Amino acid sequence: xxxxxxxxxxxxxxxxxxxxxxxxxxxxxxxxxxxxxxxxxxxxxxxxxxxxxxxxxxxxxxxxxxxxxxxxxxxxxxxxxxxxxxxxxxxxxxxxxxxxxxxxxxxxxxxxxxxxxxxxxxxxxxxxxxxxxxxxxxxxxxxxxxxxxxxxxxxxxxxxxxxxxxxxxxxxxxxxxxxxxxxxxxxxxxxxxxxxxxxxxxxxxxxxxxxxxxxxxxxxxxxxxxxxxxxxxxxxxxxxxxxxxxxxxxxxxxxxxxxxxxxxxxxxxxxxxxxxxxxxxxxxxxxxxxxxxxxxxxxxxxxxxxxxxxxxxxxxxxxxxxxxxxxxxxxxxxxxxxxxxxxxxxxxxxxxxxxxxxxxxxxxxxxxxxx
Amino acid sequence: xxxxxxxxxxxxxxxxxxxxxxxxxxxxxxxxxxxxxxxxxxxxxxxxxxxxxxxxxxxxxxxxxxxxxxxxxxxxxxxxxxxxxxxxxxxxxxxxxxxxxxxxxxxxxxxxxxxxxxxxxxxxxxxxxxxxxxxxxxxxxxxxxxxxxxxxxxxxxxxxxxxxxxxxxxxxxxxxxxxxxxxxxxxxxxxxxxxxxxxxxxxxxxxxxxxxxxxxxxxxxxxxxxxxxxxxxxxxxxxxxxxxxxxxxxxxxxxxxxxxxxxxxxxxxxxxxxxxxxxxxxxxxxxxxxxxxxxxxxxxxxxxxxxxxxxxxxxxxxxxxxxxxxxxxxxxxxxxxxxxxxxxxxxxxxxxxxxxxxxxxxxxxxxxxxx
Lengths: 371, 371
Prior knowledge:
The first copy, chain A, has 13 helices and 11 strands.
């Protein structure tokens, strides 16, 4: 391989400085070629990122070698094993050492990289992340946060948990509120995010017992957590401009996320059908191309690709399993932003603060009051 | 009031035969004028429907009198009280006698009408329906079923429960499968509907304990229930062509329903923005008008307006609170179809059959096997 001078991909500042992202090249539906293509796209756009890439070295060296100048930005770590979409998390925990996913997390664990990116099996990635990075002090259940296209000026709302754990009690939901607000502050630049709790109605008497309890807990922690609490929100509020962070358990959040994606895709397909319907409408589509492209960009899930694992000693970005180069590049961009903002340290401080005697006392009092 | 001969609204067959629908004129966001407009629209399209309309008689007589020929098709029942969106179900149960909602249900209870339609407060409507109509033998938790735009030839999938009860155990989910399949057979004309159980993954090991149990129960009842069981489905499958009926608890179903509606509305608004963006794209939109109208019709929630309460001694159609004339008319059309197909008797027979010793034995064995 010849790490030749490239005209297309700028070399990092002497390949030393900048932000280091650890990338799992395996486990995605489109294989390592798509991941390397995504890395190349990111490298081209941003000279400050360097990569540690994990997978079968010979294959990766070849793929990276085909992109001029990319080899100088990448450190390839040989890992023969691959975690497949079918592997159960428990199996991966027992036998996963030697896989590219394990190796990817390890680079964050030992401090070589700031953030890890993988498009592999979500359950296995969360299980491995919990085993190797461990939970942050004060966090019982880590969460996966995603970005949701919205009517807000920032263009996106944060929703969590979208699938780390199918259960969440009132205390977990409070932790999600704190972590989600921290993510919105650092990832979306909102000084004082507005947090809502997902329910089947906005009235106080609605919903499950743990939601009523969480409602009180979150309300009483809002000031200390530097966020505004807007109360219960409904499924229709996920893209709403009246909230920035939506808190829910991982079962409900996962169903909502996939329902939203499925609906957007359905409407998109119907739109294509409608425009393919007659010569006149095909001509109209041609005229409207720029507008339609703008619309597509706004709702394209590839451009907001990347769930973030929150509540661990290290940040992990989970990319869609089916992500292509554009999707991988979006996930890497998110990882870079979080690394650069010092997000992890800020979030850890926020959770630790919420455990301070004053807030813990408040939370305890509320819990007693409603139970 | 002069029930004059009308040129626009055909009179029912001597105002005697046909199907009788009981309609609550109050409780909707747009007031009784919108409901009467919806009744008029339905009356115009379908000569076989007669109406019993519930609300303040003087006001309703006036509204109905303004529509030529409508008075001859309507029997107005005076009810001064109105259930508001803010009323708690428990209050309505205690003090609801004399409201238009109570009176509407009463017409189904005493056999004057086959199906009830209301756009009032969902919680109160379900509570009143349970109190006055009572649950079908064998049904522990009634459910609300909705239609979901889909890629299937019939254009819609059925999802239940979308909000009757925030809880559902394995046996409830089995009942939902039987009732949902019956609804798909009678409402959508599918001889052997395909039923799926909503979960956060399609693998058998995923999800909550009650879902694994329901998975076994539904699988073993499919043949006796004359449906095919496709196993676990995800949020993205709600509009899918691989399933016709999606079974879930009322909390998850309600969040999914509102998320889907919210997403479709967001994409629609983005689309409008995109087309309003330049002179060129405005012109394109003009050219594509027919196609866009067709698209709008396909995803317009007003045209699939009407959740159906299943598992009671009588059928109740819940229309959107914000429904306009088009929405009310769609809900009445659905009520008419269900009344005409003898849906209620068929569903009752199906649930009773599932309690036959053979199936009950099967279900019991499965329950034991998995617990």
